[in-house]
User: Fold this.
Amino acid sequence: MGITLSPWMMAFLILMTGFAGFVDSAAGGGGLISLPAYLFAGLPPHYTYATNKFSAACGTTFATANFFKNGAMNVKVGILAAITAESPAYQYSGYLMGYVHLANALYRADQEAWKQVRVLLPEQELLQQELKNRQALQPEHRMLYRLL
Assistant:
C-alpha cells in the first residue's frame, strides 16, 4: 500500500515542514506545526509520528555535531549526565552544562568580565578545573577537538 500525494500537497508539506524546522531551531516546538500538516495531507498517524520523530532526531543530531565542532560541548560532563540519568542528577547536570556553556561563551567574548563573574559563583572550582583540562591538552588534541 503506497501513499500518493498531489504536487500541491507535496509543496504544502515542504513549506510547512520548512517553517516547522525554522520554528524548532529558533524556539522549539516545530512538531506542533509539522504533525498537523502531515495529518492534513492524509498521512496515517503512525507515518506522521515516525516522520516527525525522524526529523526531530536529525535536527538534534546536526545541532549536537555543530556544538561539538565549535567546542561548545563538554563531552566528559555530557557522558556523566547520560550515565547518571536519575531525575535530580539529570536536572542538575543539565543546569551545569548550561552554566558551563554560558561561562565558555562569556570567556570567549570578554575574558575580564568572565574573571569578575567567576569569583562570585560557587562552582568556580569546577570552571577552573575545566580551564586547566583544556589548557593541558596537547596541541594535536586541541586541533582535533576544534575539527570535530
Q: What stands out?
A: The CA atoms of residues 110 and 116 lie 10 Å apart.
